[in-house]
Amino acid sequence: MLQGRQRLNRRNLICATLLASAMVLSPQAVASEFGDAYSAYKAAVTTKDKADTQIYALKAYELGKVKLGADSLDTAILALNAGDALIANLPEYTFDEESTAKSKKLKQQAFELYQVTQGTYRKTYGEEAIELIDPLMGLSDASSKKDAREYLDDALDIAEDSDDAMLIADTQMAYFERLVNSPYYTRKVRNYAFDAQEAYSELLPENAMKRVLTSFRVGNVRFAEKDYDEAEALFLGVITQFQKLDYTHPYELAAHAKLVQIYELDGESEKSTQHCIAIGNMKPWKEDIEPTPLFRKNPDYPISYARAGKSGSAQLSFTIDEMGFVKDPVVLDTIGGEKFATESLLALKQWRYAPKFVDGKAVEAKEVKVQLDYYIEKKKR
């Protein structure tokens, strides 16, 4: 039997055109073409070449229908692989008409392929089989966020009926990931992530990547909800596990950055210092790019200026010391009034940065510049 669904990371790659129809080929030629296409598909998955993965997944599916039969289980698996390959090539952003049209086309193709898989799986395994979860998840990916909820609910119902704790947790987390940044993110969706994280804590070792990544995601939710004690514990746990890796994981940097914000909000600058230094040690300093503060307090708008509708700006220069504190800030230029400069200085002194590292040692970064702009949005009449 063919290999099952291959999970792929999503990026914006050019949609490939399906190669010549298999219908005109002899059975022997179809078998040979199919074998070549499927081998090329597996190779593309291995090398993470998403453009080729899409080309050969679609070609293998079309040839597979002829060689294996449209209603065969292996053809259903090929359809699932092809649907996943299309979804993996969705544009990351759809701000323009071309990207929007491409996204719509790929989703429609993928939706039809997932329907093929779903139909065959139902006939083969039954209406409530756990095998249906994969095509249901695919259908949710190929649908609008509003329509995705129906497929996600069906998938979760099947998982819960299985009494398989790991499958339930995986499905809950998949549900959360698909709706977290949508208008349909609700308390129920939020709780699925919390339930999954609790299950992983019981079922998986501390260093299991699935458990660590879920802890990070739940930590972000806790942080957004200002539950800083719970968020702190989760981020510290994430850092502990990632420190055992022989490379720097992006979530480790992000966890350090969140802890800087938590400790600064709580007035515990000493605690945040170690995390500022950790980020500086892991992240190369770039002289040509303005450093981004790990913690930033926005300046207060001068009340008299706000009442008068005054706008303006203040440009400042400062040093970032070895611990990431702002040192020796000075005003280089002010537009609109001196109070903008005063408020800018007060705010800037509370910012925290990752320090600059040279040869493995934290050093001062001098003449760092920043401009703070002040403006009042005029209400539309």
UniProtKB/TrEMBL annotation:
InterPro entries: TonB-dependent_transducer, TonB/TolA_C, TonB_C. Belongs to the TonB family. Residues 1-31 form the signal peptide. It is found in: Cell inner membrane. One of its GO terms (biological process) is transmembrane transport. It holds the Pfam family TonB_C. Residues 286-381 form the TonB C-terminal domain. It comes from the Bacteria. PROSITE patterns: TONB_CTD. Keywords: Cell inner membrane, Cell membrane, Membrane, Protein transport, Signal, Transmembrane, Transmembrane helix, Transport. It is a single-pass membrane protein. This is TonB family protein. The keyword Methyltransferase does not apply. It comes from Shewanella halifaxensis (strain HAW-EB4). Its main location: membrane. One of its GO terms (cellular component) is plasma membrane.
